[in-house]
């Protein structure tokens, strides 16, 4: 079976990297085909596990807008015939909507195609009713340069989540918190599984921990500032997350009783975040030196850092292996780097 994903184009590398990380974490066997930027096929999915896989992707992915099950793929010339040959009784219950989306495609009249295809469905069964706002069955027709995909939405991504949970909408707010989308993506890049222990030793207002908790991780947060530690607890309670511990601790003195399966964190730098009066490069170095002791072997570490900090020389000395790196341009003089690192035993 096949799924088609419409991904965000707000970043060049993160959406696909996030998808690949989730597929690996959840051990989903598939063949990935990138049709266009922002359009990805997952082929040869296990039919027995199809629904489970679909639900996992919908629950976890931040930089993906839509996920649909492919009914068939065709060409512009054969679209009407192939569409009409589909037994829509097998797919539609009650109300429906047909929506067309173009990817790098020449002139096609999307509205006219939507009307025509909608009409073909209705002519198969006059009991089906169009409902464009809230249909029972959502048919997505994706037109790329060479192929047209006819697909149906089985499970909807909760697009409102990343908007509703923005930092200023939580009960405890402090400037410098990262976007929930990026936080979720970093959790995914760190290969965190449900039930595993996720640590953020610079937890601030708890944005990363919230996203980890929502995919089922157990959480440990700590911060040098007791107001932040308390604020994290307030925000985690607000999100109804219970499986957490928070500590008022300098990262350099952190000694966990149980080692973390993954660390995802956003250490301080720049103007708006507190470094407790210390040079941020010194904190990064000391943090990397001490965090290793709090991680299980093979644990992933996903960190955000500014472009001007050279962490590679520290990684080389410590037992860390750099796996991937993504660049996010914040403004003229600051690029935020997301590094995915693994604790290695070599
Ligand atoms: C960039 S903020 C983290 C923001 C967080 N991701 C959020 O969503 O709110 C960095 C945090 O590191 C904390 N911090 C600074 N130095 C620290 C240290 N040595 N040990 C632990 N926490 C520290 C600051 O108090 C601040 O809350």
Key phrases:
30% strand; 7-stranded mixed beta sheet; VC0802-like; binds S-adenosylmethionine
Q: How is this structure best described in words?
A:
The protein contains 10 helices and 15 strands. Helix 8 links the parallel strand 10 (218-223) and strand 11. With 346 residues, it is of the alpha/beta class. The chain has an 8-stranded mixed beta sheet with strand order 2-3-1-4-8-7-5-6. The mean pLDDT is 93. The protein has helices at 14-25, 50-60, 79-85, 110-124, 161-164, 180-189, 207-214, 226-238, 280-291, 312-317; strands at residues 3-7, 31-36, 39-43, 64-74, 95-102, 129-130, 137-143, 148-152, 197-200, 218-223, 244-248, 260-265, 295-306, 320-331, 334-343. The radius of gyration is 23 Å and the shape is elongated. It folds into 2 domains: 3-152, VC0802-like, CATH 3.30.2130.30; 164-343, Rossmann fold, CATH 3.40.50.150. The site of S-adenosylmethionine has 22 residues, from helix 7.
Task: Give the secondary structure arrangement, pairings included.
Elements: E1 3-7, H1 14-25, E2 31-36, E3 39-43, H2 50-60, E4 64-74, H3 79-85, E5 95-102, H4 110-124, E6 129-130, E7 137-143, E8 148-152, H5 161-164, H6 180-189, E9 197-200, H7 207-214, E10 218-223, H8 226-238, E11 244-248, E12 260-265, H9 280-291, E13 295-306, H10 312-317, E14 320-331, E15 334-343
Parallel strand pairs: 5-6, 5-7, 9-10, 9-12, 10-11, 12-13
Antiparallel strand pairs: 1-3, 1-4, 2-3, 4-8, 7-8, 13-15, 14-15
């Amino acid at each position: 079976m096949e799924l088609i994903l419409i991904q965000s184009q707000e970043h060049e590398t993160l959406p696909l990297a996030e998808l690949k990380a989730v597929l690996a974490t959840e051990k989903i066997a598939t063949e990935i085909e990138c049709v266009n930027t922002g359009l990805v096929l997952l082929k040869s999915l296990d039919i027995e596990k199809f629904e489970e896989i679909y639900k996992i992707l919908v629950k976890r992915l931040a930089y993906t807008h839509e996920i649909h099950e492919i009914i068939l793929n065709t060409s512009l010339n054969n679209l009407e015939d192939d569409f009409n040959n589909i037994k829509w009784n097998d797919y539609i219950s009650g109300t429906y909507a047909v929506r067309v989306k173009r990817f790098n495609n020449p002139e096609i009249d999307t509205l006219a195609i939507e009307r025509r295809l909608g009409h073909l469905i209705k002519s198969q069964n006059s009991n089906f009713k169009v409902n464009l706002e809230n249909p029972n069955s959502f048919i997505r027709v994706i037109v790329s340069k060479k192929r047209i995909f006819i697909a149906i939405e089985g499970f909807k991504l909760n697009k409102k989540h990343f908007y509703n949970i923005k930092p200023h909408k939580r009960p405890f707010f402090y400037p410098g918190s990262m976007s929930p989308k990026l936080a979720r993506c970093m959790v995914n890049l760190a290969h965190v599984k449900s039930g595993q222990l996720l640590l953020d030793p610079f937890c601030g207002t708890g944005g990363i921990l919230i996203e980890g908790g929502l995919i089922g991780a157990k959480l440990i947060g700590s911060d040098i500032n007791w107001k932040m530690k308390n604020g994290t607890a307030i925000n985690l309670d607000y999100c109804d997350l219970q499986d957490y511990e928070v500590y008022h601790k300098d990262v350099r003195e952190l000694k966990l009783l149980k080692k973390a399966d993954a660390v995802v964190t956003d250490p301080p730098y720049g103007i708006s975040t507190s470094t407790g009066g210390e040079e941020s490069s010194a904190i990064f170095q000391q943090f990397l030196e001490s965090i290793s002791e709090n991680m299980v072997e093979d644990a992933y570490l996903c960190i955000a850092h500014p472009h001007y900090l050279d962490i590679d020389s520290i990684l080389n000395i410590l037992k860390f292996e750099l796996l991937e790196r993504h660049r996010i341009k914040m403004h003229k003089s600051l690029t935020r780097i997301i590094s995915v690192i693994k604790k290695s035993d070599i």
